[in-house]
Amino acid sequence: MGKTRRVSAAKPALRALRNLGPGMTDTGSVSDGFHTFDELYEFRLLYHAHAVRAWLAARYPVVRSWKHHDGAPCFGGGWFIVVAQLPTGQVSNHYRASSWSLFGDVPEVETAPVWDGHSTTDVARRLRTLLKEDGSTSVASRPRPRAAPSSPTSGTAEPRNPSVAETITARGSSVARPGSGVLRSRDT
Length: 188
Description:
By secondary structure, the protein is α+β, with helices and mostly antiparallel strands. It has helices at about 1-20, 35-55, 120-135, 165-170, and strands spanning about 60-65, 80-85, 90-95, 175, 185. It has a domain at about 30-135. The chain has a 3-stranded antiparallel beta sheet with strand order 1-2-3. Strands 4-5 form a two-stranded antiparallel ribbon.
């Protein structure tokens, strides 16, 4: 029954796409019967803004830039890119300038890191793999680092948990080099 409902709900969307014709300039209002493209893109934007905050808290390198790695403005201008280097690989999305402030916690760099060639299929696989294998994008699932002793008279320092960035580096994954604006592989 669920499949029948979805198929019948998709019929108006398919009709709307056919009616748009060659220009297809108003795809944002096309709906599957539940959500429009505009609504889905807004959800993606908001979910991504939340995800990058968790990734930053987990010390995964995340940056934003108005320019691609070659110095060209994203899509000719008025757009920016957010790039994260996860243990499973690079993921990125572009957004209109009006959404810049949603990513206010993300460090700004002059140019984005070099694109690793990932496709949307690669990004989905990388995110799914991270959820399955690591699960550590959840800040709550990570052990809290121990604070350094507050008094120099204690004589011994408490054991230090390595940061996620150090752990990623030890695994040979890419990490951000402070001030460079480039995510580089440890092996290069």
